[in-house]
Amino acid sequence: xxxxxxxxxxxxxxxxxxxxxxxxxxxxxxxxxxxxxxxxxxxxxxxxxxxxxxxxxxxxxxxxxxxxxxxxxxxxxxxxxxxxxxxxxxxxxxxxxxxxxxxxxxxxxxxxxxxxxxxxxxxxxxxxxxxxxxxxxxxxxxxxxxxxxxxxxxxxxxxxxxxxxxxxxxxxxxxxxxxxxxxxxxxxxxxxxxxxxxxxxxxxxxxxxxxxxxxxxxxxxxxxxxxxxxxxxxxxxxxxxxxxxxxxxxxxxxxxxxxxxxxxxxxxxxxxxxxxxxxxxxxxxxxxxxxxxxxxxxxxxxxxxxxxxxxxxxxxxxx
Amino acid sequence: xxxxxxxxxxxxxxxxxxxxxxxxxxxxxxxxxxxxxxxxxxxxxxxxxxxxxxxxxxxxxxxxxxxxxxxxxxxxxxxxxxxxxxxxxxxxxxxxxxxxxxxxxxxxxxxxxxxxxxxxxxxxxxxxxxxxxxxxxxxxxxxxxxxxxxxxxxxxxxxxxxxxxxxxxxxxxxxxxxxxxxxxxxxxxxxxxxxxxxxxxxxxxxxxxxxxxxxxxxxxxxxxxxxxxxxxxxxxxxxxxxxxxxxxxxxxxxxxxxxxxxxxxxxxxxxxxxxxxxxxxxxxxxxxxxxxxxxxxxxxxxxxxxxxxxxxxxxxxxx
Amino acid sequence: xxxxxxxxxxxxxxxxxxxxxxxxxxxxxxxxxxxxxxxxxxxxxxxxxxxxxxxxxxxxxxxxxxxxxxxxxxxxxxxxxxxxxxxxxxxxxxxxxxxxxxxxxxxxxxxxxxxxxxxxxxxxxxxxxxxxxxxxxxxxxxxxxxxxxxxxxxxxxxxxxxxxxxxxxxxxxxxxxxxxxxxxxxxxxxxxxxxxxxxxxxxxxxxxxxxxxxxxxxxxxxxxxxxxxxxxxxxxxxxxxxxxxxxxxxxxxxxxxxxxxxxxxxxxxxxxxxxxxxxxxxxxxxxxxxxxxxxxxxxxxxxxxxxxxxxxxxxxxxx
Lengths: 319, 319, 319
Hints:
Three copies of one chain form a homotrimer. Chain A is an alpha/beta fold. The first copy, chain A, is 37% helix and 15% strand.
């Protein structure tokens, strides 16, 4: 593996799950791979789970880990040629990124959607600059349009908890007071579409995800209907994707909050969320505290997904 | 050992001293214990000594160390159930803390008294949330009411420098321009009360510590009298504990500053302070620069106390 | 080696180059030297290259690395005796620095010129306080008047790329919108004066460096003439040194920008810069993107210079 930014970077769902299983059972078995290799984690946005779990994954693999926080506002890199750089941008991307690449073996980048320009976000401008100019393997620690380490952890979790060969998995929109990126929902859809699960997306009208992420998924606007017979409820808020509403909050309708009545429609489904979660907006207290809530083991699997990816990138270094 | 937050977590003063002595003599002897174990240090308040010494202690033990700075103001966790989280608190404590616990083996927490509510402070609300919800061993890197790693280092230092079996140790209040917590003074009293030292506390009226910390200590309002025959002078400022003055500065009386004239009343006592110290408020230049000042070896022993505690917590993991 | 702050700390240019060559070829050969040794990197100013490269150098040597960011504004240490510390300075330098020294084996310090006082800057007040009070080996990660790790990396790079025994090396001032320290230019001159290269400095009138740094170098005010026959062009902006203009920008004359026409005057010279660089102020796009630009390998050699210095400091610990 040379990059890990979307589903195309894994061989197959089955292969990824098998590799993750091995890593989870043998967390310290591959320290020779990571020895004297440096992981550089670059954060343009703050992070708790991704920061801690990825750092731990690197350390489990025996890597040296360097964390670099870059205030998004302070990261003023010139990207154009021909500009007389006498303003507030002290460095050009064509120097900054190769230099960072020269001080490490693998680079992780976190860079959220900025909601200033849909094309800037959906072209993954920042992440792709690192891929293009760093000269090193790059992986996404959540980028503008996807959060594949989260989704990989979600997949591992579903595989651990599923009670039928082909579970019904429902991604449901839920209300949130602020505008959030589509990244988690996009990634989740992208990966679920590669499984043979029965995958359904439910959200209010206007919250349609980009068609390339929806793919072959069933879209059901009636949340109650979507929940019927579900084995896993994956709740998440996202802002509107479609213009002219890109990045906007269209609804905070709390009738979409996942509560006990809704969960009663399911086949005793597990409740999942990537966290952090706003209680009684996204999900009620009793659901998230119930035995069916697997949000903590889901978060714990972030170490497993990150470590599996880092291991593959390390193997890729030697090829 | 499962937790280290107060004196009840050690077997005995004698045992703690013996263990510290071993660690100091063999700083790198226990790296098998720490191998592949992750220490997460969480700072709600800034720190120089605690941060560096605890990090070094963990590294000496072969641990992986992850430091997380959380701005106290930004740490807006919901703690109540039933709240519709549509405001400025993006996460509930019941998710945030277990997740942090899932990414490490041992957690250190620094969280000062906030002086907003005496009960919030004296119930050690923040520290106890970590104990209750993290699922991992927790130790205090200075909490609202105690600073046991500091006191343990103080004890080690006194044991190294004492010239009589039962030294006279005097904790003296000294003036400071800003309101400081009682944590260091509380802890020092708590531990000294478990030794067989002759332990005296001296401070102006109004600066009485909580009775549970004063314990069997002699309280002497006449500083000069307290200093007579002392072997160790331990200076520290603290704000008032008693209501209605909790957290307030009642006096900045510089006649309480520890100077040469005061030290002349002692039995050639050593001078101690946890640092940082304001010169010529707490102590005069000539006293802190004199051969009797042991503030630097005292600070250096912070590595020893932290490493001894971490070692015991690591041993506890395997039980 | 006990300190590394200027050229006097190395045995000779030849010895330094030979040692660097060994380190570059055997980056992981000396991990026994660094085992259980702690490197403390203290930053009073922000840093990208120095931070990452020095951290990597320490890790390559098997050291434990602790990074401490100290906001220059927040670092309010009292330095005088006799002051009643009831103001905004919470600690005296005579306590703060020895304590930091007690938690590590080697200290790196970054502290830029402040331009408030030429004597404060040129006496290297901050760096020398660490040398005087820490009790530990200290190295400069760029101080007020010099940046020796950068210059050492520059030297390594020139040695790698030079095509003649005695290349002509030209340090040229170039325009920049903000006032920058003289540190890089000073160090570069200091080291070049110890080589047998043909070393020339060129800058507009008023930008004369301190005579002790200019040394035996040829100073040529005509940039075109300076460039004739050059093998290496080392571009850098600096602010005025001479009073009453210390720290001031006297010119932003873009006729000094290094462009293709200027480079055509040279003997197919390599272009060097310490980065970050403002394009089309310091250097044109086409020059920095041309095959003669070696700014990225120059930056990569920062790991080599830092590791060579750290290795010598580690050897010094055992003497």
